[in-house]
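in:
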């Protein structure tokens, strides 16, 4: 099937940020008295919007994270991005291929607009995106696994949900895409396929995407 819109998750799909973010998140939560390993951070928070982290901590401990949590965490993440962040291998080539084939694409991320932009600039992907094809959970209020973000992106791009395909690397993202009525391919560079149930298929390398889409 030739889709009318390709929707990319950002962290772990376009930029290799998940190891950095989850290392820092685990460390910060532990520092605040909520002992968390890297593996637990990946399991519980990968693909989440910030509000979900707050909600899970309060649900589990009865305690609220400090008011400055988001700003402090993002400052640490952005500093690490400047030193460590790279694009996912093959991402720039795939974006170039979609552009040459005139297939619309966008990014729909649980991260903030600032985080998306900082990541793209640092990883060298900023030339492929404009404000018009960047969407964040900030835009809709409810992040993944709710379908709101993907439905918002499709509506703004002028494409019916059933004509969209999503590339995701988190279980929350796959659930959100399915709830939005979209096809979804699981990206398994970091997440095993068995943790992405319901995907139409799976990609180990981003370079596999054009053939998967029939280009």
């Amino acid at each position: 099937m030739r889709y009318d819109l390709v929707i990319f998750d950002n962290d772990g799909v376009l930029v290799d940020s998940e190891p950095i973010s989850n290392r820092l998140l685990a460390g910060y939560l532990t520092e605040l008295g909520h002992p968390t390993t890297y593996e637990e951070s990946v399991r519980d928070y990968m693909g989440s919007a910030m509000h979900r982290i707050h909600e899970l901590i309060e649900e589990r401990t009865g305690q609220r994270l400090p008011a400055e949590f988001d700003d402090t965490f993002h400052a640490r993440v952005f500093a690490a991005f400047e030193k460590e962040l790279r694009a996912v291998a093959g991402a720039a080539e795939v974006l170039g291929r979609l552009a040459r084939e005139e297939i619309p694409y966008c990014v729909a991320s649980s991260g903030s607009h600032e985080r998306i932009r900082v990541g793209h600039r640092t990883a060298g992907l900023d030339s492929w995106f404009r404000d018009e094809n960047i969407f964040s959970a900030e835009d809709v209020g409810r992040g993944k696994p709710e379908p709101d973000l993907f439905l918002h992106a499709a509506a703004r791009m002028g494409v019916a949900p059933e004509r969209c395909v999503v590339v995701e690397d988190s279980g929350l993202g796959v659930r959100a895409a399915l709830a939005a009525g979209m096809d979804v391919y699981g990206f398994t560079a970091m997440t095993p396929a068995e943790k992405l149930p319901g995907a139409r298929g799976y990609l180990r390398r981003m370079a596999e995407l054009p053939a998967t889409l029939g280009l």
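note: The radius of gyration is 16 Å.
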